[in-house]
Amino acid sequence: MSPNKLTLSGNVWIAADLHLGPDNPDTVQDFLQFLHSAQHQAHNLILGGDIFNAWIGDDQIARPAPWLTQVSEALRAFSSCHSLYLMRGNRDFLLGETYAHHVHATLLPDYVVLDTSAGLILMSHGDEYCLDDLAYQRFRYWVRKPWLQKLYLACPLSLRQRIADSARAGSQRGKQYKSTDIMDVQPAAIVAACEAHSVRAMVHGHTHRPAVHDIPGFDSIRRWVLPDWDSESSDGVRRGGYISIEGVQLCLHQWGQEDQCQDTGRYINLASS
Q1: Known binder of ligand: residue 40?
Q2: In order of start, what are the domains of the chain with their CATH numbers?
Q3: What EC designation does it have (predicted)?
């Protein structure tokens, strides 16, 4: 089987952009409850990147903070019964095999074709398709360099944390001067990726624009965008959710909103024909 193809049977739940960390204990607790529900309703769970607000190296698990211990134990509880898959995002691109092994999960590549009861679906974190954000793509290019990651991981944890905090603050400042369109995915890139893998649907996160998106001019392709999670938002609105695949139905579930479900037989299974 290709390393970029994953065959899944049974119900699949997918979540991303959880941004778990010490500064959002309510989000952590919501995620723990989500894992409890998934353990009873899902056969497979995919966490599609930005699981953590920042990941400064797998060696954190040697002396984990209390919140990380809670999360890791809950992930192990799920993976003791079901299949757990982790994907890297732009905030946790240093997530490695050591942590995946620690929670008995499979670490996925940057993209994977899911072979499900609903047909073939292309899955990624999504940041690689934000091609109009040139500054971010330059950043992504460099931080994925193995030699640069090796230098960073050789630094003490305290220094790595300061570097990560500084980079995150710089990213937040930079967003003030970017249009929302620039920070979204490029439709042409989505079409090209779907056509390259002979699929008619993509699931991704990163953009924090949860919805079922059509692509103008390509009615047979749909883009399912995962919600970001935030239970401590300043506006008091609790955000979060996931996508489920059950039978031939894909459903987008968002906290406090009506579910969006579609029978994929109308379009996704074209990829299998």
Answers
A1: no
A2: 5-272 (3.60.21.10)
A3: 3.6.1.54
